[in-house]
Amino acid sequence: MASTVTSGSLVYERRVARVHKYHWPAIQLNIWMLIMLIAACTIIGVFSTFIQIQQTLLLPVPWYFPYYITVAALTVAFIITLLVLIFQRRLLPSIVMIGGFILFVLWLVGLIVISVQLWGPVGSVSSNCNLFVYASNPTGQSLQTLSWLEQRSICQSWQAVFAFGMVGEIFLLWIMIIAYQVFADDA
Q1: How far apart are alpha carbons 106 and 109 in whole angstroms?
Q2: What contacts 145, CB < 8 A, 6 or more positions away?
Q3: Distance CA 123, CA 141 (A)
Q4: How far is CA 82 from the centre of its chain?
Q5: Strand 11-14 to strand 2-5: parallel, antiparallel, or no bridges (unpaired)?
Q6: In the chain, which ranges are E strands?
Q7: Where are the transmembrane segments (predicted)?
Q8: Please, what sign has the CA dihedral across residues 123, 127, 131, 132?
Q9: For the ranges 28-32, 55-59, 101-105, 122-126, which has the lowest average pLDDT?
Q10: How confident is the prediction for the chain on average, in pLDDT?
């Protein structure tokens, strides 16, 4: 450090700022972003379709449809924010850990609700699908076959939402571990 003494006996010190450069594993980060974008966009698409079906049938929209759409949209916004920070070379592990934890909790709430709806005690989606959809297998060109295909598609969409919700949870936990490792490697 350089110091300067003037006639008024004031001491000025020149400080050199140290800039941290964190080394993120590029391939893991890219895979994480790709899988999370796929999971989030799948959930947005499925629940947007479900909302459209509910409105067409003049049924009320359950609260967890817009909730999970919002959580998935926040995930996409988080990934866009990460990309901006990466391009500016300002991605900090603390930002990733805090954002990942918040999204982890939000996805966990959505996953619990979907689990209850999918495998709940009475009138669950899975039991209705097993009873009304998977128990029959119509063929041919008829309205019954077309409606059965649509019902099977809805049942499979519920299963896809649960699967991608679980993948999202695991990958959010993984990104928090990666962020901690990046922070610990730099210390």
Answers
A1: 5
A2: 138, 139
A3: 30
A4: 13
A5: antiparallel
A6: 2-5, 11-14
A7: 31-53, 65-87, 94-119, 161-183
A8: positive
A9: 122-126
A10: 89
